[in-house]
Amino acid sequence: MKLDETAESIRTMNIRGAGLIARSAAEALKELAEEYNGESLIEFTELLNKGRDTLVNSRPTAVSLWNAVQATLKNVKNAEDVTSLKEIVSRDADIFISNSKKAVETIGRIGANRIKDGDVVLTHCNSKAALSVIKTAYEQGKNISVYATESRPWKQGLLTVKDLSDAGIPVTMIVDSAVRWIMKEIDIAVVGADTICSNGALINKIGTSQIGLAAHEARVPMMVCAESYKFSPKTMEGEIVEIEERDTSEVAENLPPNVRIRNPVFDSTPAEYIDCIATEIGLISPYAAYEVIVNKLGHECLFETEG
Ligand code: RUB
């Protein structure tokens, strides 16, 4: 798939979920590099930078996309000629993609240890990291069942219930507004992440913060499943995460002309509602987000946000 097509697929949500978006962006830059048949290092670098901007602008909220292009292009400056630049981009894209896939598996193993035999799990939207945790717990022989929210307006919950049911896990779908009512039956809430801020706040599918609030009220732990590239160096510099608002036709059509609709598709859950974050480098407190950004993503990353 050409880079422009990948960006369009991300925008239209044919490619969706923060992890897959990130891997697809790395793959698109790799293909762009491999297909370059000019001889100018400057022209080649400009092409890659333009490709990076096109990808980053395709969806605004998930920092995984930004971290993926940073990781893929981080060694561009070390290239001596066109051939070495191709090799560098291709290698760094492959490393990112492979580490990303491994991270989802490791998170599954680490997060599953927090799920007990007999637990009733609540999940939201369609997160591959959260599903990795739930499926690993089931594969460990734990007798679990899952409530999955519908996740309006896109109904990603339908993907989640299909995946869980194919894996043989008992699953019940509920509408998003049933979350607080059902919470008394839930032992643990397990959700994914689009972005984790330096103050430990979670940006994830709209409705996640209501789950956090209801879980906190009912003393039900909420575990977030997030690869380290979901943590945002940009928030260390005070940047506020942009919450994507999508086309209102996703919510409803043919309403009276004076009725306004809004369609924010992500929200922010404060750290105080989050019990723990399962990452590939271990199970951490949301208040350790700063350390992940500095130690795992590196200070260099911060300076690359400038200019
Ligand atoms: C998907 C969503 C997911 C995170 C994490 O939103 O909010 O919880 O992206 O997913 P959308 P994963 O459907 O709008 O992309 O764990 O697969 O990266």
TrEMBL record:
**GO molecular-function annotation terms?**
ribose 1,5-bisphosphate isomerase activity; S-methyl-5-thioribose-1-phosphate isomerase activity; translation initiation factor activity
Keyword list (alphabetical) reads: Carbohydrate metabolism, Initiation factor, Isomerase, Protein biosynthesis
Under Enzyme Commission nomenclature, its number is: 5.3.1.29
Entry binding sites for substrate? R16, G17, A18, G19, R59, S127, K128, A129, N204, K205, K230
Q: Name one GO biological process term.
A: L-methionine salvage from methylthioadenosine
Pfam families, A to Z: IF-2B
Report which reactions are catalysed by this protein: alpha-D-ribose 1,5-bisphosphate = D-ribulose 1,5-bisphosphate
| Function of the molecule | Catalyzes the isomerization of ribose 1,5-bisphosphate (R15P) to ribulose 1,5-bisphosphate (RuBP), the CO(2) acceptor and substrate for RubisCO. Functions in an archaeal AMP degradation pathway, together with AMP phosphorylase and RubisCO.
Q: Which HAMAP family match?
A: R15P_isomerase
By sequence similarity, the record places it as follows: Belongs to the eIF-2B alpha/beta/delta subunits family. R15P isomerase subfamily.
Against NCBIfam families, the record matches this protein to: eIF-2B_rel, ribulose_e2b2
Q: What is this protein called?
A: Ribose 1,5-bisphosphate isomerase
